[in-house]
Design a protein that fits this description.
Elements lengths: L2 H13 L14 H4 L11 E4 L4 H4 L3 H14 L5 E7 L2 E6 L1 H15 L13 E5 L14 H16 L3 E5 L7 H13 L2 H6 L1 H18 L2 H15 L2 H24 L18 H9 L4 E3 L2 E6 L4 E7 L7 H16 L3 E7 L3 H13 L8 E6 L2 E3 L2 E2 L10 H19 L6 H18 L7 E3 L1 H4 L7 H20 L22 H11 L1 H11 L3 H20 L8 H22 L8
Parallel strand pairs: 4-5, 4-9, 9-10, 11-13
Antiparallel strand pairs: 1-3, 2-3, 6-7, 7-8, 11-12
Helix pairs in contact: 5-19, 5-22, 7-9, 7-10, 10-11, 15-16, 18-21, 18-22, 19-21, 19-22, 20-21, 21-22
The structure holds one RNA strand of 76 nucleotides.
Length: 581
RNA sequence: GCGCCUAUAGCUCAGCGGAUUAGAGCGCCGGCCUCCGGAGCCGGGUGCGCAGGUUCGAUUCCUGCUAGGCGCACCA
């Protein structure tokens, strides 16, 4: 909770009259009731008393008036004004003290400012990106990749030990398709020269031919079955494809600043399914149905979960059950997040329910973090139909566009390509985080490559300007790092403009925003917050001169605070923060 | 047929377990002083899908309906 909110909540709790016996006002989370008044003229924080009316058996207006009077009897110096209005108690903070407490907190905490530390000693496993090695690395993977990365940083920032797992789709019928394709049309020379291109060619060819010759699908199933039996030749091919794919993935991940702790995918679990199946059998949860082995879930109102095909081979659910079990045994996590698209909601519901039914109560810590699909020109992205937009092409296009703009507007910038990469990729990342995760995103190049308005580059640009002015202060003999080391040297009364108070408040609520993101398992609030902070800052900065003003030191201190929060925020979203662009 | 998700301004979207007067971007129109970076700033706004319910008060919670999207057995 933010500094102000916590202090006010504590004060209210202390000053509130004791409730009737049996009615405990402590049960109401007072801090959660506090909110920003619609108009700053009312105050900085408002406490609605309506929900307490029943507990105290008194009118809200009366409660508010009494509470305000009680607080005013010995009003602490950090509160300038406390008054009751329409059932609310409105608090006006002492601005200089507020500025001092927020800015010195940012100064002392620096890159840690905003962290709740709530995750200390807890482990969270985040399963994200998880491409299928037998498919092209396409844009539809961007959302899980970007979301997962942001969530990983967010949880790590809150003190969690984060295990980033890339649960590769490297086992299953699709891999059989690949083996069949390679045997029929594979070109060894091409594979050696440009493996990714060749693998893609085989992928497309297979799906084209399979339209005309459905028996290819049977061959693929057969090939996978062989693979699962450990056929040496199939295994060798598969290993090679897998290796080449991972190398390619890693290269792209590096561009986005992503590294995984584990690439344990489906194949990793291929020899770990027996115990799960046995367990389900022992619990009497498995039955034969139409030749297959399934776990009925009627009592949970869910369709049965398929465990084994009629031919005895395993399925996606089987491997996910094994993975869930393994993750529990291996990591003992406090939380497991599966960042996987919304189409698999039922699947995860079934997996979790099967484990629950089998008595694995730890599965309550497992969550499917669903997100909406990416639509492309009114069509859901489908890699099979050939409508492929490669993930890397999107990054390239964005970087190119960014480079053009830099050449035009900042021709003297050193390291243009590097900065263009940071800004271009930042634009893409931000664009995928700015919507609530369950919303569908319709991808189009024009919007993706727009750098004006509510975009990543807007935030990065604001950050760069901030760095620019702080640099300028440095060249003019001000040691920016030293400002605020001794707060008593500063006169916080000088930060008295309404825009300055608004900025202080934005900075103060940063920790709350992160908690909100953590609770909702969605970085969208942070992305929105950064935009708002930039707007407030840009408005301020546009109308108040910093350098040479009589409040220069104080304003530079304020700017340094904004810079730190933007830096932390961009990092948490998984974006770079170039100091010039 | 059953289930899940979504519905807020022309368009794309915020609005945290309710609260005083519902916000932003894009697009459109009009402005920005030889001054800290114009990827910027300022101004222009008759909008919460429909119908009920709970409440002192509902965009928010509940129910039903409508529309769109996605799932529902050997793909993942």
């Amino acid at each position: 909770m933010g500094l102000f909110k916590a202090k006010i909540a504590e004060l209210i709790k202390e000053k509130l009259p004791p409730a009737s016996p049996g009615l405990d006002p402590d049960e109401v989370a007072l801090g959660d009731l506090l909110e920003a008044p619609p108009d700053p003229a009312y105050g900085d924080m408002a406490f609605p008393t309506f929900s307490l009316a029943r507990t105290f058996r008194r009118a809200p207006a009366k409660i508010a008036a009494d509470l305000a009077a009680e607080i005013n009897r010995a009003r602490p110096d950090w509160l300038e004004k406390v008054e009751a209005l329409n059932g609310y108690v409105n608090f006006t903070l002492n601005k200089p003290l507020a500025a001092r407490s927020v800015l010195t907190a940012i100064k002392s905490e620096g890159r840690r400012y905003g962290s709740s530390g709530a995750g200390q000693g807890r482990k969270v496993v985040i399963d994200f990106s998880s491409p299928n090695i037998a498919k092209p690395f396409a844009v539809n993977l961007l959302r899980t990749t970007v979301l997962g990365q942001a969530l990983s940083r967010l949880y790590a920032f809150q003190g969690y030990e984060v295990v980033r797992v890339n649960h590769l789709g490297d086992w299953g019928t699709q891999n059989g398709q690949w083996i069949v394709g390679y045997r029929l049309w594979g070109d060894e020379a091409a594979l050696a020269a440009n493996p990714i291109k060749e693998l893609l060619r085989l992928y497309i060819r297979f799906h084209e031919e399979a339209e005309k010759h459905p028996e290819l699908e049977d061959q693929a199933r057969e090939a996978f079955h062989l693979l699962e039996q450990g056929d040496p030749e199939a295994l060798a091919l598969w290993k090679r494809f897998r290796h080449l794919s991972i190398e390619e993935f890693k290269r792209v991940y590096a561009r986005m600043g992503i590294e995984f702790d584990s690439y344990a995918g489906e194949a990793f679990y291929s020899d770990k399914m027996e115990p799960v199946i046995r367990l389900l059998q022992e619990k009497g949860m498995l039955v034969e149905s139409e030749g297959a082995t399934v776990a009925p879930l009627d009592e949970y109102n869910l369709p049965p979960c398929l465990i084994l095909k009629s031919d005895g081979s395993t399925l996606y659910p089987t491997r996910d059950l094994a993975a869930a079990l393994y993750r529990w045994e291996q990591y003992q996590p406090a939380l497991v997040l599966y960042v996987v698209d919304v189409r698999q909601s039922l699947h995860f519901q079934q997996i979790f329910t099967v484990l629950k039914k089998a008595g694995m109560s730890w599965v309550d810590r497992y969550e499917h973090i669903a997100y909406g699909l990416i639509k492309f020109q009114d069509m859901i992205m489908s890699t099979r139909k050939g409508a492929i937009v490669f993930l890397e092409d999107v990054l390239d296009e964005a970087a190119n566009r960014s480079l053009e703009i830099i050449k035009e507007r900042n021709p003297d910038l050193p390291d243009k390509e590097k900065v263009a990469e940071q800004v271009g990729i930042g634009a893409i990342i931000f664009r995928f985080l700015i919507y609530s995760r369950l919303k569908e995103i319709s991808f189009d190049w024009q919007t993706a490559l727009s750098f004006d308005g509510d975009t990543g580059p807007y935030v990065q640009y604001t950050y760069a300007r901030l760095c620019s002015i702080l640099r300028k202060a440095g060249t003019e003999g001000v040691d920016v790092e030293k400002i605020g080391e001794d707060p008593s040297c500063l006169c916080f009364e000088k930060l008295s403009a309404p825009e300055e108070a608004a900025l202080i408040f934005e900075l103060e609520r940063f920790p709350d925003v992160l908690i909100q993101c953590e609770a909702g398992r969605d970085p969208v609030a942070l992305a929105r917050y950064l935009l708002e902070l930039c707007r407030v800052f840009n408005g301020y900065y546009h109308q108040h001169r910093v350098m040479g003003s009589d409040a220069m030191a104080e304003r530079l201190f304020l700017l340094a605070g904004v810079r730190t929060v933007l830096q932390n925020g961009l990092y948490l979203l998984g974006m770079s923060a170039p100091e010039e662009m």
